[in-house]
Amino acid sequence: MKKLVLCSAIVLGLTLNVGCAQEKKVQDIQNNKVSTNQSVQEQSDVDIKDVMNKVSAIDKDLKESEKKEITLEPEKQGWEPQTLSIWIKEGKPMKVTATQADDAGKMDGLASFYLEDEKLILFKAPFSNHIFKDDKMVLWLDESMKPLDNIPVKDMKDAEKGIQEELTRILDIFNKKDGNATDDNIVRFESGDINFSDVSYVESESNRDEKLEKAIKNVLKYNKNDGPLAYYYNKIDLNGDKKPETFVYLSGSSVSGTGGSTALIFEDDKDAYKLVSRFTLVQNPIVVSNSKTNGWNDLIMYVSGGGIEPFYSQIKFDGNKYPSNPSVQPKVKSGTIIKGTAIIADDISKNSGIEVQ
């Protein structure tokens, strides 16, 4: 059998170990500890041809599908942002791609997932290919689609698990972007004279962001004597530069009242967050409308409390910042159809947010 040189491909945060050439005893083969070149070749003649025909058909059919794209926040300072893409036809994903960074953070690689009836059939990485059947990885191939031999079963299973988990993670990102959050955990707008049916809803992020916490404390001049302070946040591109801003909604006795709470918008400025806008009297969720003013998305906020008649406020970027008080901004006109994404759509009574340390 051909011996393999130790090789690994780091793809989508996974380390896919190709394995090391070693002499294998007959007992190991009998115990199914390795895949032999012969057993791989016997099934690959059918599997590879069949899968590649399906992959070719999927690529040809992409022009008839709906494409969606998300640009994520850079993983590290100085790195390019990762772009995720998905093609959907008749409600089912056909293909998913994710750009891949080199050691310098340049996104010059691409990983692709091909699906048939919502099941993965091929994972195509920059340096390897992996064929799946019935949710299990059955073949590990090199970049020229030639089967590799002597792959330890453990490596096969680890790679299978990692690839499936990564696909699930990406699909979950698109599901949250499309507002497929659990209804029990989100708050939706209801209005008899304003149409919110084209608004998708997104829950806040759950991961602590220490750099963001530092920016929040600096802006508020917060210290522990002010009482507990929690925050909710979402990252969303507000000005079309493909670099997400961070919208923060705060909760605590020092920032909240009957009319709402303080909210902040930050830009990620290298080593720190830079404040763009500060709001008072904000109630969640906040709609990031598809309409724009001065290059920035308009915001829609619900205003109530303090004895005023409740209404929906339209907040437009003035060229430098958003106006701070939604209660004195123009009302959304009756009969308006709102299109956009409602961020921080959490049911605050069920989600206490992230406590500032």
UniProtKB/TrEMBL annotation:
Which interval of the chain is the signal sequence? 1-21
This protein's UniProt keywords: Signal
Q: Which domain of life is it from?
A: Bacteria
Q: What is this protein called?
A: Lipoprotein
